[in-house]
Input
Amino acid sequence: MIDQTVGFAVCGSFCTHAKAMEALEQVKARFSTVIPIVSECTAATDTRFGPAHELMREMERICDRRVISSIREAEPIGPKKLLDLLIIAPCTGNTLGKLACGITDTTVTMAAKAHLRNQRPLLIAPSTNDGLTASAPNLGALLGRKYIYFVPFGQDDPEKKPTSLVADFSLVADAAQAALEGRQLQPLLRVV
Output
């Protein structure tokens, strides 16, 4: 087990939450301390994929600590240098855009801003239906930024959703270890 503290932030992309929980289990098995974080949307939205409170309860069970679910709770991540690595899995197109433009108006974007001020790695697992259209410029902007790494991703359904991109959630733990070593897990583009 690696003795480092990892933040694991979950955004909207509700259809990927089950895969994100599998990835969280793998991350928790590899790193000594994992701090769960959710966006306000994730904390408050019940969907056909399950109730919000069950997702948060599952995250708390895996991590054995309370979920950070407000901007106020996320802000100290920076000044207290709480994390060695922050993972956003899934990272929606909305959050990609906010990160690319420096907008800090959610728990997850505040966690990212606070964490990046310490020049420590941020790992993004994109999941967005407009990854090859409206979110493409934001994805491109983040690909070129220092301290930002990506979980390898690809088109999840090119026939029915030709502009959709999703991370390979089975690679989150490996991509996390690579990011902590200052390298991007390759190949970045994959068939998922």
